[in-house]
Each structure stands twice: as structure tokens, then as C-alpha cells.
Amino acid sequence: MKLLRTKTIRRRAVVSAALLLIFAAVLLLVFLRGRKILVVENAETGEVYAERRVKTGDEVIFEWEHSFEHIPWFEYYEIKDDGTFLLGTIAVAGFGAGIPAQMDVEYRYEDGLIYMDGIGSEFPQFNWINSQTALKNIKVCGELLLRGSDMPHHEKIVLRIRNGLER
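The chain above was modelled as a monomer; its predicted structure follows.
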């Protein structure tokens, strides 16, 4: 009788431990899957230039110098829940080659820049050929992530959001 009770206790302990491990593993997977990591990498080699944990609603800002007009150009994006980027605003010092002047959005003039607000274009990721002179920097929530000069000139670059489980 005592041996039967000992086996039953052991069996319950093993089952309880197994259930606890399964529960912990599921919680860990849910937590990691929900994490968002902004990554900037070489599209061909996979070399990572920057990584940063981000969350829904964080702002990503690209600062460029227009290649022909040599004026500043800012793009303001919001990270959406699905890991895409929503372009809200573009700010430029003037209009010229390639600068959108006919968009049906609100315009305002502030601190020497023309702001085009309420754009609402969505991007799954960004792909570009880096120019160390045209791309001034990328900021996340107002903090410098990297400069164009931190990446090789004329290489294919990708900026995207990956979840915590992806590599």
C-alpha cells in the first residue's frame, strides 16, 4: 500500500513538473514572438549594422540630404502593431527634383521647413542602396540609431522589423 502511494506521488510530481515546463515554454514563446526588433542589415551579406528593440507607436526618422538640391529632407514613420511603417510626415527645405509637391495633404511651414502631414503611406520595410553622403542618419524615438557613414557606400541595405523569435 505504501509503495503504491509513493508511485502515485512520484507520478503526480512528474506530471506536474512536465505541465509546468510546457506552460513556461508557451509563455516564453508568446513573449518572444511579441517582441519587435528593428534591424538594419546588408541585403546581400546579412551583416547587421544596427539592432534595437522597438514597440508599436515608436517613431523612426530618416534624415537625408537631397542629392541634387542639397537641402535637408526628413521622413517621419510610426511603427505599427504588425511591424510595418506608416509614413506620417515629410519635411523639406524646398521643392525641386523628385520632391513631392502635389500631394493631397496638409502643408505647414515651420523652422525653415515645409511639412507635409497626414500622408498615411504604409511600408513593410525599407530597401535602398546606401549613400554615405545622402543618408545623414536614422533615429528611433529621437535617439541616433546610425549614420549613413556607418554603413558601406553603394551597398544594398534593408531596414525592417523582425519578431523576437526570428533570426
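Residues 23-32 have pLDDT under 50 and may be disordered.
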